[in-house]
């Protein structure tokens, strides 16, 4: 498998789970056929850490943004701090941003929507793609996407085939990862089969969402091959074709050569 085929479009190597061996893990990724990684921030601190990783490892790029789980604790000058990050050349997207109605302790829904819309306006100002988190908020997410029409990706896509078709029609990409390998993955497999190959991004969300046979363990970017194999099976094509399409799509979306 070519080293130029695994593009992990969504990772969190800033996670504490990598604190003990981060350098070793990241140094080994190119030897495991990993071509590029987008490390996504979830708040200002993790966004700065993502930028530091991108500046340290040539195959790394970063996204900066406020995840819906963090907006309730955002400082008053969050926009100023975010602007400072987005001016850096290895920041290639605004994210991870979005809506998460699953966790009751998250900020109220109107607050989450307010932060999402504010960050979509900032992304438009910088002409950057967005990396979107959507958990149990499909209706509100679609309404906002119809209004703002950003370029970007709905990561770890959990909606229906019908929602996927509208998201693609709106011009966005669909991020699929370990969930397609899970035992109860009926709808994700339907989406994997139906999503146009030129709108697919491969991702891990590592250290989370490790695919079968590693489910429950720490994930890393090399494990994309397992989700890519399941997507390939759904589409009746080779794993190499899935990886190559994901790489080409991610390079185009994030303007990464």
Kindly summarize this structure in a few lines.
With 257 residues, the chain is an alpha/beta fold. 40% of the residues lie in helices and 17% in strands. The longest helix is centred in the middle third of the chain and has 18 residues, at 109-126.
Describe this structure in words.
There is one protein chain. The protein has 257 residues and is α/β, with parallel strands linked by helices. It has one domain (6-254): Metal-dependent hydrolases (TIM Barrel). Helices cover 40% and strands 17% of the residues. The protein has 9 helices and 8 strands. The chain has helices at 22-28, 44-56, 78-86, 109-126, 138-148, 161-169, 186-194, 224-235, 239-254; strands at 6-11, 34-40, 60-64, 91-100, 130-135, 152-154, 173-176, 200-202. An 8-stranded parallel sheet has the order 1-2-3-4-5-6-7-8. Helix 2 runs parallel beside helix 3 (78-86) and helix 7 crosses helix 8 (224-235). The chain is globular and about 50 Å long. The chain starts with 5 loop residues before the first strand and ends with a helix.
């Amino acid at each position: 498998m070519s080293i130029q085929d695994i593009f992990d479009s969504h990772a969190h190597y800033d996670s504490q789970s990598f604190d003990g061996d981060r350098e070793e893990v990241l140094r080994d990724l190119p030897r495991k056929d990993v071509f590029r990684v987008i490390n996504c921030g979830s708040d200002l601190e993790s966004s700065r850490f993502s930028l530091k990783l991108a500046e340290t490892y040539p195959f790394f790029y970063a996204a900066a943004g406020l995840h819906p789980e963090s907006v309730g604790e955002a400082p008053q000058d969050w926009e100023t701090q975010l602007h400072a990050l987005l001016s850096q050349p290895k920041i290639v997207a605004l994210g991870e941003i979005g809506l998460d109605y699953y966790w009751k302790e998250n900020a109220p829904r109107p607050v989450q929507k307010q932060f999402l819309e504010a960050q979509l306006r900032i992304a438009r100002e910088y002409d950057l793609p967005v990396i979107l988190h959507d958990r149990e908020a499909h209706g509100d997410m679609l309404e906002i996407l119809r209004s703002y029409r950003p370029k970007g990706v709905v990561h770890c896509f959990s909606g229906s085939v019908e929602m996927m078709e509208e998201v693609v029609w709106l011009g966005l990409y669909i991020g699929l990862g370990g969930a397609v390998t899970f035992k109860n993955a009926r709808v994700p497999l339907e989406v994997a089969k139906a999503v146009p190959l030129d709108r697919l991004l491969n991702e891990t969300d590592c250290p989370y969402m490790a695919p079968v046979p590693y489910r429950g363990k720490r994930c890393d970017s090399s494990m994309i091959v397992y989700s890519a194999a399941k997507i390939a099976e759904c589409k009746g094509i080779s794993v190499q074709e899935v990886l190559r399409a994901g790489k080409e799509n991610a390079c185009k979306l994030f303007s990464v050569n």
